[in-house]
Amino acid sequence: MHPPGADTVLVRHGDVNTKSTTVKRYMLRILVENLEAALEDRSVSGAVDRRWHRPLIATDEGDVEAAVEAAASTFGVVSASAAVTLEPDREAIYDVLDETARRHYTGGSFALEVNRADKQLPYTSEDVAREGGTVVWEAVEDEFEPEVDLEDPDLTFGVEIREEEAFVYLDSVSGPGGLPLGSQEPMVALVSGGIDSPVAAYEMMKRGSPIVPVYVDLGEYGGIDHEARAMETVRVLSQYAPNFDLRVYRVPGGEAVATLVEEMETGRMLSLRRFFYRAAERIAEQTGASGIVTGEAIGQKSSQTAQNLGVTSRVTDLPIHRPLLTRDKQEIVALAREIGTYSDSTIDAGCNRVAPDRAETNAQLERLLAVEPDGLLERATAAADDADLVEP
Ligand SMILES: Nc1ncnc2c1ncn2[C@@H]1O[C@H](COP(=O)(O)OP(=O)(O)OP(=O)(O)O)[C@@H](O)[C@H]1O
């Protein structure tokens, strides 16, 4: 929903504001590039303009809602609104409020939210809120019984007044927040296509790190849809990153998994994790990534006890980031639904069971190394070198 004639998207960012001027300038430049890419990817016409420290998208009414959606799927953006641009003149603002109220008010409570950046103006935000509220009231009182509710209104009319222009808007669509993608170093994301790992990758992207997705092909243990599930979830993630390369490194792990199943019982899942991390480390070396991201959460599986995570992590010097470490499963599921990876993650992958009957929950490194197949880590490095790059 937008005011008649809306021609602009107001883009609000959050954490970028907390930065020093130099860092902010750097981050805003990346944000603008990402907004441009999001518009282009969706074939939405719009010109991104960075004025007054906050980007605006100039567009036309036909494209304005799509431009809001594009902005609201861009990391770093807290919210976006479709707005009409006008002179910073009270009468002009009231005319638009009048027209907007007649078009969109359908009863219930309303409020005006006024922000004024230019403190030199001869009127205050309160003046505009009071007078604008009266304009809205008078526009609709013949047909409805309007009510003002500043706490929890059914409809909010937004007015933002800057030095050279003013904006009137209705809705604010929430964005993901975080930092612009590309403002941090890349990370290798181990993506299995289950519910957790795509969410973990998304969380890293949200903090500005582009991901290098790595999927380990489990061969006959993977099941027919296992790979498809992983690829589909990365495809969903790639929609949040139109100007980044999210091709997936598919690492051939089938033989190593078969060896683990044949030769190892206790600790098998932990050695498999060590294989994953070592392969990820190799790809990080090749791509200049500065860490590894996994979907592990403490205590979620037997391989994810605090002790086991401590032991398996020692296979690499790179930091292993686990953004979901402290999350409950229900929270992770809710996030997966929100970002759009849930339905692909829950495709039945028909995997064959790799886990042994008795799970190791209290691994000791020496004990594990004593039973791990010889050369497993070298095989991980070689498998990473043999990985092919797959378009998700
Ligand atoms: N085949 C795989 N390829 C790449 N990474 C994997 C693979 N299997 C597991 N991982 C990584 O190891 C982590 C822990 O493995 P786990 O067995 O719990 O995964 P899962 O339950 O199959 O998937 P998810 O954790 O995504 O729900 C995953 O979150 C993921 O980061």
From TrEMBL:
Family annotation (Gene3D superfamilies): 3.30.2130.30, HUPs (3.40.50.620)
- Top-down, what is the taxonomic lineage of the species of origin? Archaea, Methanobacteriati, Methanobacteriota, Stenosarchaea group, Halobacteria
User: What role is this protein assigned?
Assistant: Catalyzes the ATP-dependent transfer of a sulfur to tRNA to produce 4-thiouridine in position 8 of tRNAs, which functions as a near-UV photosensor. Also catalyzes the transfer of sulfur to the sulfur carrier protein ThiS, forming ThiS-thiocarboxylate. This is a step in the synthesis of thiazole, in the thiamine biosynthesis pathway. The sulfur is donated as persulfide by IscS.
Whether Transferase counts among this entry's keywords is yes
Residues the record lists as binding ATP? 190-191, 273, 295, 304
Where it sits in the cell: the answer is: Cytoplasm
Keyword RNA-binding on entry: yes
Q: Which GO terms describe its cellular component?
A: cytosol
Q: Which CDD domains match?
A: THUMP_ThiI (cd11716)
Q: What is its EC number?
A: 2.8.1.4
Q: Which organism is it from?
A: Halostagnicola kamekurae
Tell me, which GO biological process terms does this entry list? thiamine biosynthetic process; thiamine diphosphate biosynthetic process; thiazole biosynthetic process; tRNA 4-thiouridine biosynthesis
Membership in a protein family: Belongs to the ThiI family.
Q: Which reactions appear under catalytic activity for this entry?
A: [ThiS sulfur-carrier protein]-C-terminal Gly-Gly-AMP + S-sulfanyl-L-cysteinyl-[cysteine desulfurase] + AH2 = [ThiS sulfur-carrier protein]-C-terminal-Gly-aminoethanethioate + L-cysteinyl-[cysteine desulfurase] + A + AMP + 2 H(+); [ThiI sulfur-carrier protein]-S-sulfanyl-L-cysteine + a uridine in tRNA + 2 reduced [2Fe-2S]-[ferredoxin] + ATP + H(+) = [ThiI sulfur-carrier protein]-L-cysteine + a 4-thiouridine in tRNA + 2 oxidized [2Fe-2S]-[ferredoxin] + AMP + diphosphate
An example of a GO molecular function for this protein is: ATP binding
Domain named THUMP is located at 65-172
User: What pathway does the annotation place this protein in?
Assistant: Cofactor biosynthesis; thiamine diphosphate biosynthesis
Pfam families in the record, alphabetically?
A: ThiI, ThiI_fer, THUMP
Could you tell me what this protein is called? Probable tRNA sulfurtransferase
Q: Which UniProt keywords apply?
A: ATP-binding, Cytoplasm, Nucleotide-binding, RNA-binding, Thiamine biosynthesis, Transferase, tRNA-binding
